[in-house]
Amino acid sequence: MSSPTTVELLWGTRQPPRRGPKPSLTLGGIVGEAVALADAEGLATLSMQRLAERLGYTKMSLYRYVPGKEQLMALMLDAAMGEPPEPPGDVSGPLRWREALRAWALAIFERYRAHQWTLELAVGARPMGPNEMGWLEAAVTAMDGMGLTGPERLDTVVLLNGHVRSLAQQVGAARDTDLAEQVVRQFAETMDAAADRYPAVKAAFAEEAARTANRAFGDDLGDALSFGIDRILDGLDVLVACRAKA
Hints:
Strand content: under 5%
Largest sheet: none
Order of helices and strands: HHHHHHHHHHHH
Helix content: 55-70%
Number of helices: 12
Number of strands: 0
């Protein structure tokens, strides 16, 4: 029998063999341990051999369940993303789409932050699993009744997710306090050396520095997250209003 494909593993469409001894491992258990390994040590340490050692089995034992690392990482991504949250109440009322999309963006940000390595895997052309598709379905459904076309809804998801991803990446870096301090210090040094050439940046940086003097680097990113989400939703609101008047 040929090895299951990534799509078959993600969607559970490949029936396991009914004959033979009861399996001592489960695919879910293997994926769960791989997620825990990636959370603790990052993707760089992930290998079939390393995972097998953590599980107390041989590497060949794992191949009975998952053909290789590529398929394993696809399963890890879908497991780590989990199911999307329920929308906040009835999304059919006036501007409830805004509440739903904002809640969606904040929730997926928290998933990215909890599993930073997913940012590396959730790129490019690849099969999507049921959880990841569920997130997409939730966002697209939230825009029912807005008058947006299908492509416009998908573009909106890309725009929101792109903003969220960029901030999640910075939050991951900001967990290293030394790195956060280095970023601020180096930018301040740059301003000292070249501020006269960039007066607008100098003024903005001075205002930001005063506002956040007693706050953590990660808090600033939280403000940027909400600010960006709200501005994207403002733009959608204007688009919908303009079309309603046309």
